[in-house]
């Protein structure tokens, strides 16, 4: 299944992408949120679609594509999780996952405009594989248990302001949490929708100039391990979003560095998970 959400901000509704059409599921389900995932929502949705997909109302193309999940309890991110990105950042390949968080109010739609933050001089882009959980987990025993906790996967642009992140002292979170800095979607694909998770093409372009051209095969830590690892330190909840790192080609890693400016169009995609587009304003 491919889960979507639609509608204006603060009034989003749940739906699915089925046979290429966006269909409204809001008469049966309230939202794709913690309550949904925690209470066997995916199984209920699958059964519902078998009986009702043909009768569901199609969503007009003019209606906004909202983030594919509701605001999560946590957005947890993994830094330097691609070997070539670590190299372009002049940092050692990590022996354990580098963890940082983003404010959950950064969540935005896959085609929403993104405002360059006030006083920003180094707004940057990062195409990443997002992972959403279908249950609460703590102290998992192994990666197999972690894999069972995955609801699905999506595209996320882990936008960053590098001067806030790296030049102001303290933690990375303040360079990651500007409004609109987590476009998510266009849909959340359940694991059965994807082929080999460890061989998905990832691309990002700025004004049609290809900047990132990577593959999930170059991940240092895989999604199931990341979930297992995080669960040793914190309670992860159903509906939480984990962003698993970016390949090489980010603006800060270019020679010379190249950051986003007003009017730039960022387009990013992951094989099997669709495409995002954001205009910088």
Coarse structural class: alpha+beta
Which shape, going by the Cα principal axes? globular
Helical percentage: 10-25%
List low-pLDDT spans. none
Strand percentage lies at: 25-35%
Order of helices and strands: EEEHHEEHEEEEHEEHEEEEHEEE
The tally of strands reads: 18
- Summed over residues and divided by their number, the pLDDT gives a mean of 95
Radius of gyration: 18 Å
Number of helices: 6
**Main pleated sheet:** 5 strands, antiparallel
**Cα end-to-end separation:** 33 Å
Explain the overall architecture:
- 15% of the residues lie in helices and 28% in strands.
- The chain is α+β, with helices and mostly antiparallel strands.
Q: Which terms would index this structure?
A:
single chain; 281 residues; alpha+beta; five-stranded antiparallel β-sheet; five-stranded mixed β-sheet; 18 strands; globular
Summarize the structure.
With 281 residues, this protein is α+β, with helices and mostly antiparallel strands.
Topology:
Blueprint: E1 2-6, E2 13-18, E3 21-24, H1 34-38, H2 41-52, E4 65-66, E5 75-79, H3 83-88, E6 98-102, E7 107-108, E8 123-124, E9 127-133, H4 143-148, E10 150-157, E11 160-161, H5 162-166, E12 182-183, E13 188-189, E14 201-206, E15 209-215, H6 223-231, E16 241-243, E17 265-270, E18 274-279
Parallel strand pairs: 5-16, 7-12
Antiparallel strand pairs: 1-2, 1-4, 1-13, 2-3, 5-6, 8-11, 9-10, 9-16, 14-15, 14-17, 17-18
């Amino acid at each position: 299944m491919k889960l979507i959400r639609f509608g204006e901000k603060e009034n989003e509704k749940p739906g699915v992408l089925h046979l290429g059409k966006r269909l409204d599921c809001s008469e049966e389900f309230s939202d794709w949120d913690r309550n949904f995932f925690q209470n066997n929502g995916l199984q209920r949705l699958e059964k519902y679609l078998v009986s009702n997909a043909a009768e569901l109302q199609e969503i007009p193309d003019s209606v906004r594509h909202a983030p594919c999940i509701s605001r999560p309890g946590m957005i947890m991110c993994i830094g330097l999780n691609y070997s070539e990105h670590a190299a372009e950042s002049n940092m050692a390949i990590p022996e354990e996952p580098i963890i940082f968080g983003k404010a959950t109010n950064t969540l935005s739609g896959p085609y929403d405009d993104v405002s360059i933050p006030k006083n920003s001089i180094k707004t940057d882009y990062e195409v990443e594989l997002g992972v959403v959980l279908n249950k609460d987990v703590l102290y998992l025993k192994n990666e197999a248990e972690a894999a069972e906790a995955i609801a699905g996967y999506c595209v996320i642009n882990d936008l960053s302001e590098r001067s806030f992140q790296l030049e102001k002292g303290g933690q990375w979170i303040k360079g990651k949490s500007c409004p609109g800095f987590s476009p998510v979607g266009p849909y959340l694909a359940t694991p059965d929708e994807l082929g080999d998770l460890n061989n998905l093409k990832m691309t990002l372009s700025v004004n049609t100039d290809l900047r990132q051209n990577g593959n999930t095969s170059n991940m240092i830590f895989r999604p199931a391990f990341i979930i297992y690892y995080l669960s040793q330190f914190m309670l992860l909840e159903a509906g939480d979003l984990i962003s698993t790192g970016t390949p090489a080609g980010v603006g800060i890693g270019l020679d010379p560095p190249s950051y986003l400016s007003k009017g730039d169009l960022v387009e990013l995609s992951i094989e099997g998970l669709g495409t995002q587009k954001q205009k910088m304003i």
